[in-house]
Amino acid sequence: MYLSSRVLPAISACFGAVAAILVGAVTPAHAADPEGPGVEALEAFRTPAPPRSAVENRFFLKEGRFEISPMFGYVPNNPFAVRYAGGAILGYHFSERFSLQAQATYSPDSGEGDLKGLTSVLLDRAFNAGASGRNFQQPLDKVGLSASFGVAYAPFYGKISLFGETVLNFDLYGFAGVGMISKNNYFATYDQAAVAAGSTDIVMLNQAPTFNEVKVSPVLGIGQNFFINQMMSVKLDARASFYLDNQPQYDPSVPTSSQRLYNNFMISAGLGFFFPRMKPRLYNF
After folding, report:
1. N or C end of the chain, less CB within 10 A?
2. Could you give the count of Cα atoms lying within 13 Å of 155 in the half-sphere of its Cβ?
C-alpha cells in the first residue's frame, strides 16, 4: 500500500498523542512524588518504630482504681521472738505502673509466751559458765505497730499458661517509702527463783528503760500480684524497715552508747480487692 507524504506525518502525530495519554494515565499517582515508593519504604525501614509493651491485651487494668489488701505477715529475722502480724495495704493506681501505697500492721505481744528457744539456750549457757555469766542479760525487742507510705512501681506484667488451658496474669512491683515502727524493748534474764522451785522455764522477761520506743525508718519492698478475676488478686509482699538503735547491752553494769543499723523484715500474703469495677470488655484474653 502506498501512503502519500502528507498522510504519514498525520498518523505519526496521532500515535504520539495516544502514547502520551496512555503514559499519563498509568503514572499520575507517582508524578507528584519525585522520590518514588522505594525511597519511602527505605525511610520507614530506617526509622525505628515506637516502643510497644511486651505483653499486649492486659486481662487486668489498674489505672484509676483503688486497692485494699488485707494481709497476714511474719517476721523471719527476729531470732528471739515469734512475730506474726495482721494489717492491710491501701493504694491508688495512677497508671498501670505507678501507684501510691500505705501499709499498716499490728503484731500482738505475748510476753514470755512468744519467745523462741534460742533465748533460753543463751541464758542457760551464760549462767552455767560461772560467776562471769550470772549477770548476763539478753536484749530483745518486739515490733508492735508499723506503718509505711510510699510509691510502688510495677514494670513487669506477664502471663503464665497453666496446663495449656488456663492463663494466669501477674505483675511484679517494687516499693520505696518512709515508715515508722513502735517496738517493745526487753531484757531476758535467768530466773534463778523459778529454777530453784523446780520450774523448767528459766527465762524472766523485764522491760527495758526504752519500752514502747518509736523509730522512723526508710522502707524498701517487693511484691507480686496474681490476678484471679477483674476485681481480685492474690498478693505476696516483702518489706524491710531500716532503723538505727543502740548496740546490745549484755551486762547491766556496762552501758553502751554506740549505735548500729537494724532491719525489721516482714513477708506477708493476702487478697487484693480493686474498685471501682473495670469497664466491660468485649472479650477476655
Report:
1. N
2. 3
d(CA 110, CA 76): 17
Looking at the domain assignment, is residue 17 inside a domain? Answer: no
212 touches 235 (CB < 8 A): no
Domain membership of residue 29 (yes or no) is no
- Does residue 193 form part of some domain? yes
Question: Residue 207 in contact with residue 220, Cβ under 8 Å?
Answer: no
- For the record, the C-alpha cell of 219 comes out as 522502707
Residue with cell 531500716: 242
Contact assessment for residue 269 and residue 84, using Cβ atoms and an 8 Å cutoff: no
* Alpha-carbon gap, residue 209 to 211, rounded angstroms: 6
DSSP secondary structure letter of residue 48: P
Rounded Cα distance between 85 and 108, Å, is: 7
Q: For residue 128, what is the domain's CATH number?
A: 2.40.160.20
**Which grid coordinates belong to 129?**
559458765
pLDDT tens per residue across span 143-179: 999 999 999 999 998 888 777 677 889 999 999 999 9
Q: Which residue has the cell 525489721?
A: 264
- Whole-prediction pTM: 0.76
